[in-house]
Amino acid sequence: MAAAIYVNDHLGLDFDDYFPSMIARLGAEGFIMELCNGFRLLMDGDKGLITFESLKRNSFLLGLHDMMDDEIFCMLSEGDLDGDGALNQMEFCVLMVRLSPGLMEDSGSSTQWLQDYLI
Ligand SMILES: [Ca+2]
């Protein structure tokens, strides 16, 4: 499950920066769709946002049994750009891209092309 791999990477487990090769394979648009699929797996279906509760519940469903509460808080606060305590789709995608050193190197304005797709 792709989303599980993203989360695992964020937590520093066997980090393998494969996003650049994913983009090469899928194209930027396909890559964004993959990120959006991951977002939907982790979000709260009613709110349309990734909240602490939805991340905790769905990361467990995805097999991330060892995800600690403080790691979930850390991920949320890292990605929460507008300060509402939850991640919307844009914030989630930006967070994932920021976690990829390869993508950060490729483009100085790492999130600009991403925003072009999402907005
Ligand atoms: Ca937010």
UniProtKB/TrEMBL annotation:
Ranges in coiled-coil conformation: none
Organism: Acer yangbiense
Domain EF-hand: 67-102
One Gene Ontology MF term: calcium ion binding
Sorted UniProt keywords: Calcium
Protein name: EF-hand domain-containing protein
SUPFAM superfamilies recorded: EF-hand
